[in-house]
Amino acid sequence: MVQFSISNMFLNAEPMVKGVMILLALASLSSWVVILEKTIILKRVSRQIRLFKILAKDLKNEINPKIFPGFTILITQSGLKESLDYAGGETRTDYRERVERSMRGVLSGRIDRLESHVTVLATVGSTSPFIGLFGTVWGIMNSFVGIATSGETTLAVVAPGIAEALAATAMGLVAAIPAVVAFNKINSSTRKVTKEALSGISLIGNTLSRNRYESKEKSTSQINKSAPP
User: Fold this and answer.
1) Cα separation of 209 and 206, whole Å?
2) Which pLDDT score is estimated for 129?
3) pLDDT at 228
4) What is the rounded distance in angstroms from the CA atom of residue 176 to the CA atom of residue 170?
5) Taking the CB of residue 50, how many other CB atoms lie within 10 A of it?
6) In degrees, to the nearest 5, what angle opens at C-alpha 5 toward C-alphas 170 and 142?
7) I need a labelling partner for 150 at 20 to 30 A (CA). Which of 41, 51, 118, 167 fits?
8) pLDDT of 137-156, one tens digit each?
9) Residues 122 and 183 sit within 8 Å (Cβ to Cβ)
10) Does position 219 have pLDDT exceeding 50, yes or no?
11) Residue 79 contacts by C-beta under 8 Å, 6 or more apart in sequence?
12) Measuring CA to CA, how many Å separate 41 from each of 59, 113, 137, 176, 184?
């Protein structure tokens, strides 16, 4: 009696089908490595961005980068450094946009690193079903060739080869489905993190520009008051 276990189907499969199964197993493994890595990183970054937004909202005047968590320190430092470079005749809107652009540049670099290797999931999700289907077609073709050669058409002769071939399609789906789901989830989470970070950057930009121009207006007012009539 033939034992239809996964290990037996793999060991008894045609060399080409066996190669397809190995390729799909490696693709699935690589996608799970990316999934676990990005899940851990996204959780940490999400916490940092939420705290960054809360702290940015509570800021009044003084901005201390050290109070911010993780990489958001670099974002704030970039904004502070840019805010010290003041061009004469620059409007408050232009000043704020320049400061925020500097912070967005730091954020963009971090998001790029966060999105690195995510294309692996897209590749595995889009190609694995077709790779598995190729293995299935190849295996069924060989099964029919075996039938023609032996002249036997009983189910006992046909079933093992077809089952081994169909296992390749199953493996393709097993590799593709988690990859597609994770790819969409990671992209959605990344967009949410980016949106919250941009909101925090806008708050800091507003605080810096307000501090700069309110102090400038006060200085101008004091000079006008002290000037002789």
Assistant:
1) 5
2) 93
3) 47
4) 10
5) 15
6) 65
7) 167
8) 888 887 777 666 766 666 66
9) yes
10) no
11) 63, 99, 100, 102, 103, 201, 204, 205, 208
12) 27, 10, 40, 22, 16
Amino acid 202: pLDDT: 94
Contact 17, 165 (CB under 8 A): yes
Q: What's the 3-state SS for the chain?
A: CCCCCHHHHHHHCCHHHHHHHHHHHHHHHHHHHHHHHHHHHHHHHHHHHHHHHHHHHHCCCCCCHHHCCCCHHHHHHHHHHHHCCCCCCCCHHHHHHHHHHHHHHHHHHHHHHHHCCHHHHHHHHHHHHHHHHHHHHHHHHHHHHHHHHHCCCCHHHHHHHHHHHHHHHHHHHHHHHHHHHHHHHHHHHHHHHHHHHHHHHHHHHHHHHHHHHHHHHHHHHHHHHHCCC
Cα(137)–Cα(53) distance, rounded to whole angstroms? 54
Q: What is the pTM of this model?
A: 0.80
Q: Per residue in 69-100, pLDDT tens?
A: 989 999 999 999 998 887 667 888 899 999 99
pLDDT mean over 58-71:
84
* 83 within 8 A of 208, measured Cβ to Cβ: yes
